[in-house]
Design a protein that fits this description.
- The protein is mostly helical and 249 residues long.
- It has ten helices and no strands.
- It has helices spanning 2-22, 30-58, 80-103, 105-112, 116-128, 130-141, 145-173, 184-201, 208-226, 231-248.
- It is globular.
- The termini are far apart.
- Mean pLDDT is 79; it is low at 234-249.
């Protein structure tokens, strides 16, 4: 529930710049939208740091594994620093592969006749988070739903409170005008998905109907992105068509 509360707060911070833009109520035009995005990113990063302090220092007892007599003690395969080293090595390799992968999205979109939004939001996360999905399913099969939900929802919290705001702040220092305007369609889907998951999981119990609801919700979300096209991509394609038309005539 703490993760869901943080996600709802992240949705607020991520959606307000888009609402400000589409309601045309900016005080100083796009400068207001950019300033709000940077301010919101700073707040979200502070909240994430507070969450880490809450989780690792003041309330560690809430995140300790429950004792289970049926489970046998497992021997540690890697120590703390060994894990840190391997994590760093794999992070470097994944970042390099991700750079190549992202560079091929528009080419794949053209060859497969899929929208860029569908590939970026639906297909890539399924492949990129395969290990995370597998671990969540395995923990759920062992009836450790706290860990399973922590894996699934915790990663979303990390992206919303750390990765996206951090990118905006880094862009600020690099003098790149990155903002949190995710466009109205993406903002609406973000809001509805977080609300759906929060309501389904609020009582801490699971059954097959709730699982079916979440699966069908994901299929519905996938279909919506399948028929959605990025407005920025439409603009580039229109400009390209105009240039080709000018060259021909």
């Amino acid at each position: 529930m703490m993760n869901f509360g943080l996600l709802l707060l992240a949705v607020m911070g991520l959606s307000l710049p888009a609402v400000l833009h589409f309601t045309h109520t900016e005080l100083h035009g796009t400068a207001s939208e950019l300033a709000l995005s940077r301010f919101s990113s700073t707040i979200l990063l502070l909240i994430y740091l507070a969450f880490l302090y809450f989780q690792l220092v003041t309330h560690t007892h809430l995140y300790e594994d429950e004792e289970d007599d049926d489970d046998e003690d497992e021997e540690l395969v890697l120590g703390f620093w060994d894990s840190i080293v391997w994590l760093g090595i794999f992070t470097v390799f994944i970042s390099i592969l991700s750079d190549y992968l992202v560079a091929t999205i528009e080419g794949a979109s053209a060859s497969w006749d899929f929208s860029v939004a569908f590939i970026s939001v639906i297909l890539l996360p399924i492949v990129g988070n395969a290990a995370e999905h597998a671990s969540a399913v395995m923990f759920a099969m062992k009836n450790k739903m706290d860990i399973s939900l922590g894996v699934a929802v915790g990663s979303s919290t990390q992206i919303a409170l750390l990765v996206i705001p951090f990118c905006v702040i880094v862009g600020w220092f690099m003098d790149k005008p990155m903002d949190l305007n995710l466009q109205m369609f993406e903002t609406a889907t973000l809001f509805t998905t977080v609300i759906t998951v929060a309501f389904v999981c609020q009582d801490g119990r699971s059954n097959w109907l709730k699982g079916l609801v979440l699966i069908l919700a994901y299929i519905l979300l996938s279909a919506s992105f399948f028929f959605h096209k990025d407005p920025a991509l439409i603009g580039r394609q229109a400009a390209s068509s105009i240039n080709e038309w000018n060259e021909e005539f």
